[in-house]
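User: Just a sanity check before I run the rest of the batch. Below are the C-alpha cells for the first item. I only need the designed sequence back.
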C-alpha cells in the first residue's frame, strides 16, 4: 500500500453540525427540535454503556440478546419508528449496572397554560 493510499478519517462532530444547521436552516431546526426527547434518551443510553465501560456486545451478553439487538435499541431512539419498551430499557440499564428512572418536569408554568 502506498502512503497516499492510507486511510485518513475525517473528523465529524454531530453536535457542532446540528448546532450549525439549527442556526442556519429553519426547517432543519423544526425537525431537529421535534426529536429532542429521542436524542436525549439516546444520549442517556450511550452514557450509561460508556460509563460502565462496556461494548454493545457486552451489554447484549448481559441482556441475553445479540449485539445487533443492542444496536437496534440504541439506533431506534433517533428514528421514532420503533421505540424500545420500558421492559427493554430496564434490562439495558440493569446490564449496565444501573436502574432505569423516569421523571416528568413541568414544561410550562400552570398560570401560563391556556384554558381548556
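Assistant: Here's the designed sequence for the first item:
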Amino acid at each position: 500500500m502506498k502512503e497516499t493510499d492510507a486511510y485518513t478519517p475525517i473528523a465529524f462532530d454531530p453536535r457542532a453540525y446540528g448546532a450549525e444547521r439549527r442556526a442556519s436552516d429553519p426547517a432543519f431546526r423544526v425537525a431537529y427540535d421535534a426529536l429532542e426527547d429521542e436524542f436525549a434518551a439516546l444520549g442517556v443510553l450511550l452514557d450509561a454503556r460508556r460509563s460502565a465501560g462496556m461494548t454493545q456486545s457486552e451489554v447484549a451478553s448481559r441482556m441475553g440478546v445479540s449485539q445487533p439487538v443492542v444496536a437496534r435499541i440504541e439506533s431506534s431512539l433517533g428514528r421514532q419508528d420503533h421505540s424500545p419498551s420500558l421492559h427493554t430499557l430496564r434490562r439495558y440499564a440493569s446490564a449496565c449496572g444501573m436502574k432505569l428512572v423516569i421523571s416528568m418536569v413541568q414544561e410550562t408554568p400552570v398560570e401560563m397554560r391556556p384554558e381548556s
